[in-house]
Amino acid sequence: MAGWNGYWYTVGWMAVKRDAPAPSSPPAASLPAERSAQKDAPLGVYLGELAIPKLGAAIPVYEGVREQELRRGVGHYPASDWPGGRGHVVLSGHRDTVFRRFGELEIGDALIIRTDRAAIHYRIVNIRIVDDDDRTVLVEKARPTLTVTTCYPFRLIGRAPKRCIVTARPVRVDALAFPRG
User: Fold this and answer.
1) 121 noted as active-site residue
2) Which residue in 76, 88, 94, 121 is the catalytic one?
């Protein structure tokens, strides 16, 4: 069992370090801020990356939160809005791989979602711990919001009874002059 866990730990660590693949379809940072026409992207499609400057991390983001996506990077909840939209963007990742240093984040830290169309800059406004069955983190918000979730406690081995919820607000969108694709 330790070998199996070690393998997936390494796979997650590599997801943070490697360059993400080129998008298989254009990611959906809509400019101006509108809900993307690609709302129903296939599960597993590469959408962009989540950069966490404080941690020196750039983590690939994939559509879906199944184990297949979470092994490779961060998952985007399909029912949530796309980065750059007017709604609530929800991302999730494993605490023992891509988010192993998540506990170092503080209110005011930057998060950046990069797609082939834009870089959406967010500022962390809240960090809280909730029960693992708390679904209020998924509800629609009155203004554009990024919510990033992971299991908690961070260093617990085994199933975690809580979730760490980081909430951020957009502060700037940089449209790319020459999008890829």
Assistant:
1) no
2) 94
Dihedral sign from CA coordinates of 15, 30, 53, 107: negative
User: Which residues are within 8 A (CB) of 173 and not within 5 positions of it... i.e. 6 or more apart?
Assistant: 29, 31, 33, 84, 118, 119, 120, 121
Residue among 56, 164, 70, 50 at smallest CA distance from 112: 50
Give the pLDDT confidence of 88-113 residue by residue, as tens digits: 999 999 999 999 999 999 999 999 99
Whole-model pTM?
Answer: 0.79
The active-site residue out of 76, 88, 121, 151 is 151
Closest CA relative to residue 29, chosen from 52, 50, 47 = 47
Residue type, 122: Y
Q: Which domains does the chain have, with CATH numbers?
A: 2-175 (2.40.260.10)
Whether 88 sits among the annotated catalytic residues: the reply is no
